[in-house]
Design a protein that fits this description.
The chain has 494 residues and is of the alpha/beta class. The chain folds into 3 domains: 76 residues, Winged helix-like DNA-binding domain superfamily/Winged helix DNA-binding domain (Arc Repressor Mutant, subunit A), CATH 1.10.10; 241 residues, Type I PLP-dependent aspartate aminotransferase-like (Major domain) (Aspartate Aminotransferase, domain 2); 107 residues, Aspartate Aminotransferase, domain 1 (Alpha-Beta Complex), CATH 3.90.1150. The chain is built from 17 helices and 14 strands. The strands form 3 sheets. It has an 8-stranded mixed β-sheet, with helices on both faces. The relative contact order is 0.11. The structure holds pyridoxal-5'-phosphate.
């Protein structure tokens, strides 16, 4: 069995105290803070003494004391291990209390970081039943994916190991350009495609490229919080523009911020409300952008899943004046852990975006990108999307009929033409945020729509994902939701 690699352990020889005591305290803190986990094998005393530049006796006496106090245990013939018997309440404490309490420190951060600082303790976010945006993972063709990854790792292109394909593996840029042309009528050459670590990174870069401090940047209200946060991170000013049944309300935008130069939109499937932007509105927005050196960020996040209505091509495909920066993601069509998104930029902006990208993280793992290129060009992605579209359509129908049957007294719901979630409007006295909190306690990860608004006018509804929740589980899960709604409604009456 391998032993722990204690890279953060060092001995300060200028410390006047005995060295074995110093080593004892450092090892004990590492164990209590779970840096060295229960059951971990420690290096031999000889090896540790060599690594730390101390005598073997120093290590032996530190180990002896740790053993006497129950932090370590010796296993005959197998070495020294961190005890598995340390009580949980001790773990996570720092007994030597040498470090200052981080909460007591007053750190001066930038205005942007302060604006983004969470107000309460960070809630761990895990996906679960009804998570919006969660795809079905059990039916992903992992065998094909694993075969392609193995193939490309076995014989990787040297450039992908130590070169610097800032815009992404060439094969992937080519495969994406073709895929986007066929499926979204995106009009581009492969070198206009920049592969990134998710579409959030694309959003961040576009806003960074256009926003000066204090600039008004238009976003939809309700809208994707990642857009608002990127605007704030850039020191700019998010302008929340209402959404109507055709999407982003351009007239409202013009009066709210006549000088704005960038609008962040989701025309195919407004996030999170869902309307598809009409052709008329698209043409008006392109005209508005062309008029005065303005740009549009098009977030095409889950447009691959359309169930009804007329499929409209991307805004980028309609743009004749190079005003649109198109953003897409593999998170919904594959899985978000892949961390692949992409940005398609006008030709005269390619260089600047490559430079901006190089500044943050150089590039993404290129060998995985080469495997993804083949996954797309061999047709596996298209096949998977086709299968998932049929499955998600069925799941949406089952969810709607369950919601209407079991929760119809509390909410109303309509079919969505596109995407992976639906919107269930609540009776006004049932607060969506309260339902979200209670549902979360029961493992249902739906979201409150009102939390996605910036402005004062908020709709009271639930965002319920259907794509990643098995249709057979829906009757039981909706039953649980019905009980939560009943509790909320009863609470309001008392
Ligand atoms: C509307 C929208 N845009 C962008 C993103 C970012 O996705 P990713 O960074 O995983 O590509 C998300 C993620 O949930 C989203 O819902």
């Amino acid at each position: 069995m391998k032993h722990a690699y204690l890279a953060n352990l060092s001995i300060d020889k200028s410390d006047p105290g005995p060295l074995h005591r110093q080593l004892f305290l450092k090892l004990r803190d590492n164990i209590l803070q779970n840096v060295i986990k229960a059951g971990t094998r420690l290096p031999s005393t000889r090896l540790l003494a060599e690594d730390l530049g101390v005598s073997r006796n120093t290590v032996l006496s530190a180990f002896d004391q740790l053993m006497a106090e129950g932090y370590l245990e010796a296993r005959v013939g197998a070495g020294t291990y961190v005890s598995t018997q340390i009580p949980d309440e001790l773990l996570g404490t720092n007994s030597s209390s040498e470090k200052p309490n981080p909460k007591a420190r007053k750190i001066k951060l930038s205005r942007q970081a302060e604006a983004l600082r969470p107000t309460g303790p960070a809630k761990p976010y895990h996906q679960g039943p009804f998570s919006p945006g969660r795809p079905e993972l059990d039916q992903f063709p992992f065998e094909i994916w694993a075969r392609l990854l193995a193939k490309h790792w076995r014989k990787p292109e040297p450039d992908y190991l130590s070169g610097n394909p800032v815009g992404g593996a060439t094969a992937l840029r080519e495969a994406l350009a073709e895929h986007l042309a066929q499926t979204r009528a995106v009009n581009c050459e492969p070198d206009q495609v920049i592969v990134l670590s998710g579409s959030q990174q694309a959003i961040h870069l576009v806003i960074k490229a256009f926003a000066e401090t204090g600039d008004p940047i238009l976003m939809e209200d309700p809208g994707f919080p990642g857009i608002r946060n990127s605007i704030i991170a850039a020191g700019a000013n998010p302008i929340a523009v209402p959404v109507d049944d055709q999407g982003f309300n351009l007239e409202a935008a013009k009066s709210l911020a006549p000088k704005a130069r960038l609008a962040c939109l989701s025309p195919s499937h407004q996030y999170p409300l869902g309307p598809t932007m009409s052709l008329q509105r698209r043409l008006e927005i392109l005209h508005w952008a062309g008029e005065n050196d303005r740009f549009v960020l098009e977030d095409d996040y889950d447009s691959e899943y359309r169930y009804s209505g007329r499929p409209l091509s991307s805004l980028q495909g309609l743009d004749t004046e190079d005003r649109v920066l198109y953003v897409g993601s593999m998170s919904k069509v594959m899985f978000s852990g892949l961390r692949v998104g992409y940005l398609v930029v006008p030709k005269d902006l390619v260089d600047v975006f490559l430079a901006l990208r190089r500044d943050i993280d150089g590039h993404s793992p290129a060998v995985a990108e080469a495997a993804l290129a083949e996954f797309i060009s061999e047709g596996h992605l298209a096949t998977h999307i086709r299968k998932m579209r049929i499955l998600y359509e069925k799941r949406q129908k089952v969810l709607i009929s369950e919601l209407r049957a079991k929760c119809g007294d509390f909410l109303s719901v309509d079919e969505q033409e596109c995407g992976m979630h639906l919107i269930a409007f609540l009776r006004p006295e049932i607060e969506d945020k309260k339902v979200e909190a209670l549902a979360r306690d029961q493992g249902l990860m739906l979201r409150a729509l009102s939390a996605f608004y910036e402005g004062p006018e908020k709709k009271n509804a639930l965002i319920i994902g259907f794509a990643g929740t098995h249709e057979k589980q829906m009757p039981r899960l909706v039953g649980r939701l019905a009980q939560i709604l009943e509790t909320c409604a009863a609470h309001m009456q008392t």
